[in-house]
Design goal:
The protein contains 19 helices and 18 strands. With about 575 residues, the chain is α/β, with parallel strands linked by helices.
Length: about 575
Amino acid sequence: MMAWIFISLVILLLNHTVICFHTVKNSFQGQRYQAIQSIDAWEEQIREEAVDILLPVFFPNSNSDDNDDSTQQPITAEKSLKRFLRKRYQKLQPHHHSHNKTANESRGRLAALAIGTSVMRLRYWYNVISQNNLQMQPIPYPIDSTTIDSLELSSDSSNNTNSIKERELCRCMIDEHASYLTSTSTSDSIPLQNCDIATRLSIQYSIPTFLTTLLIKQYTYKQVEEICIQMNNPGPITLRRNAIQFPGSDEDLCQYLLDEDGVKARVCRQPHEDYQNNKLLITANSNGNRYIVGSSSDHGYIKPPKRALKLLPQQSNNETTAVEQRRNQKSIWSMKSWMNGYFEVQDMGSQIIVQSLELSGSESVLDYCAGNGGKTFAIASALMHNDNVRAQQHSQIVAHDIVEERLRQIKGSMKRVGFQKVNEKSNESIFSASNGENKCTIQLCTSTDLEASFNSFDAVLVDAPCSSSGVLRRRPSQRWELTEEDVCEALPNLQLEILLRAASFVSDNVGRLVYSTCSLLEEENESVVKRFEQSGGYLSGGFKPWDFDISSSEEENNDMQHTITLLPSDESDGFFIARWKRVL
């Protein structure tokens, strides 16, 4: 169990070890990097173990000794890593590795090499092809074992079998990633000839070609390149102050984090900015409905919401790269302030989605796709603590999800964030919190319970399942699990179905409906919005676009003023938001 917890934390803290890429300076032909001659026994063993992990990822038919339960289907590096640790590390003694390296340090290094190399596979594969003077082919996933017949990876002529070449290929890629992890170079260009823009970006930033092709159709080249860079950078660690458990100011929480947990954070909003009515503060320009969080001369921007804090990296003189800085970041889950429920880890864009509901007073809210409850708890905090809440008001939240395990996860967090079970002796999933003046209840619901017990809500949030293309730096291996059919057909159809079902619960007395995704693709965003607005449920249901209040010196001629796209940046991930009101 500890191994699983550790790997999850490693993946979170490293953001899967993906940042920018650097120039390849060493040939794969006939030799390994010269640096390999000087690596110690511990590092050599870790790299060879990383090879064992990546063989079934890159080559599902590999006959690796550690792949006894090999599958004919590709698996993720995360799953292969967990499987390897379960077999190899579970019963090992603490001093198994040379130089008395701890088990945790070994696992951390192994995760960095295996997951990072897997994520950057397109770029590394291209270098293998180009160094062997082979004609570039569509990027294979998994790597086509028939292609490696022509690779000259070893100077030993006897090493000519595919199985040996598969292992050598994995090791070459791992060695390059090991070099990258300690590199401070900012150069990331590689020579690409006779490639179209989408393919060039795909190889440069190790992103599936179909995904860069879709992005190029929707955004400018400059925007797409910035999106690709952000997909491979560590994302910011943003906190949301939980006003239920910590009623002090944002500045007070920053001071508490420093005093009690020894970490630095900064308040994201400016103290003088007006946040009445819990509305978004948006400034537009020629980029239409595309924005970033924070000010910019090139984009429209949205100012950060209340209660948003940004955790600052812990640095030391010995840390040379962002990966190393993130690895040494204090574990959030061990902080006293987190265990007390004073904050939640929530991206700025996710907080902005909740702010777009413009919650106020005594309201009923349906979080239709509640997931792990991040937005559910943000809604609760906003309902109980905003400028429009008067004393003695009672608000109600229903957290709905079709996966009962997710509801159980929400239930497990209730006490920490300030909610208690209404009736300890019953099995009902109803919880309540009070700040002395105002009260809020959260009820966990399956689809059957929702349809049987509720008719309408003042506000409905639909945070739909999606490709996660706006948050790939948080889920990097997901890029290799997506297909073009997923993002162009399967997911949009599912999203429309969910949106139509959720819309039926919106009150006809000026009820509000918000649809959001963590995708940047038009197929899952604007196209779903247009299909919804052409549906019978929308046309006969009294829905009208609910435009965002946008300040601009330019006259906007945009019929999608009720939608915004947050581009990924150093302050937030990428999200899409659309909203409507219902008046019959």
